[in-house]
Amino acid sequence: EILVEERAPTAPTANNRPTHQLIRIGWGEGDLRETIKAHGGTWVRDRKLWRVSTEVIRRLKLGKRVIPENA
Predict the structure, then answer these.
(1) From CA 63, how far away is CA 2, in angstroms rounded?
(2) Which of 7, 14, 41, 69 would bridge with 52, disulfide CB 3.0–4.6 Å?
(3) Which of 28, 27, 17, 31 is nearest to 60 (CA)?
(4) Beta-carbon contacts of residue 49 (< 8 Å; ≥ 6 apart)
(5) Burial bucket for residue 57 (CB in 10 Å: 0-12, 13-18, 19+)
(6) C-alpha of 42 from chain center
């Protein structure tokens, strides 16, 4: 007889969410770029994207700019 333990699906928790994500900022969006830099964002040269904390992305409502890490 084989017993299989059943587990309820787990909801995302703060522990398995990314702390930083990549976003795209256009060349002509200097004000946004300066805002991101002021909030600790860093330029990822080889990807030509900005790495920003997930909290900043949420606060500034930049979710539509997020680029998947593996893209």
Answers:
(1) 45
(2) 41
(3) 31
(4) 22, 23, 24, 67
(5) buried
(6) 12
Among residues 48, 47, 46, 58, the alpha carbon closest in space to that of 20 is found at 58
Cα–Cα distances (Å) from 11 to 2, 54, 59, in that order, read 28, 18, 22
Would you call 15 helix, strand, or coil by DSSP?
Answer: helix
Distance from C-alpha of 50 to C-alpha of 45, rounded to nearest angstrom: 9
